[in-house]
Specification:
Chain lengths: ~110, ~110
């Protein structure tokens, strides 16, 4: 079983739609959680950290459910520029706290 | 902003060549990482370094070595390049262990081994 699992998609949505991605992780001792965004042929960039109480950054909302070991990302009012791959990332509490990356969920927003 | 610079954007090398990929960061970060990214497999950790002259194997170190002689520079070495090492290579850095922030990545080196 992969440490971090995501639906690869693609998720095809029209502009203005609300879309949600989920991600599950296997290591219950994981301490920190992130969503990264990766555009085609570019490097991953931090989109937002995910906090236990849930957090929001503009149109983006991240949630963490430690009991069920999943993380979610909600994007409201999708824009064409949101088209990208979204990587779920988990940081452990051992081994120098390395990041473990999911394989990503691809989002395509169409006009 | 932290800047992580990788020396080459695209590289084509022949099988059996020794290949050096260079990465430099400008924010005095202690930790540096090398990943490769392949379709369907995501980012996989090759090696990381938590300080100068320190290195640790990641999940897929076979066929690679690294060098960290200065804090700002972390080099990935393919001792004898093979076609299965054709991939996107990404370098990343972060301030130190214990910092819960994510990493900053370089723009990547797309290596093709022919």
């Amino acid at each position: 079983r992969k440490e971090v699992e995501q639906d690869p998609g693609p998720f095809n949505v029209p502009e203005g739609a609300t879309v949600a991605f989920n991600c599950t992780y296997s290591n219950s001792a994981s301490q920190s959680f992130f969503w990264y965004r990766q555009d085609c042929r570019k490097e991953p960039k931090l989109l937002m950290s995910v906090y236990s109480s849930g957090n929001e950054d503009g149109r983006f909302t991240a949630q963490l459910n430690r009991a069920s070991q999943y993380i979610s990302l909600l994007i409201r009012d999708s824009k064409l520029s949101d088209s990208a791959t979204y990587l779920c990332v988990v940081q452990g509490n051992t081994g120098f706290q390395k990041l473990v990356f999911g394989t990503g969920t691809r989002l395509l927003v169409s006009p | 902003d932290v800047k992580v610079t990788q020396s080459s954007r695209y590289l084509v090398k022949r099988t059996g060549e020794k290949v050096f990929l260079e990465c430099v960061q400008d924010m005095d970060h202690e930790n540096m990482f090398w990943y490769r990214q392949d379709p369907g497999l995501g980012l996989r950790l090759i090696y990381f370094s938590y300080d100068v002259k320190m290195k640790e194997k990641g999940d897929i170190p076979e066929g690679y070595s690294v060098s960290r002689e200065k804090k700002e520079r972390f080099s990935l070495i393919l001792e004898s390049a093979s076609t299965n090492q054709t991939s996107m290579y990404l370098c990343a850095s972060r301030p130190s262990v214990g910092k819960a922030d994510g990493y900053t990545f370089g723009s990547g080196t797309r290596l093709t081994v022919v």
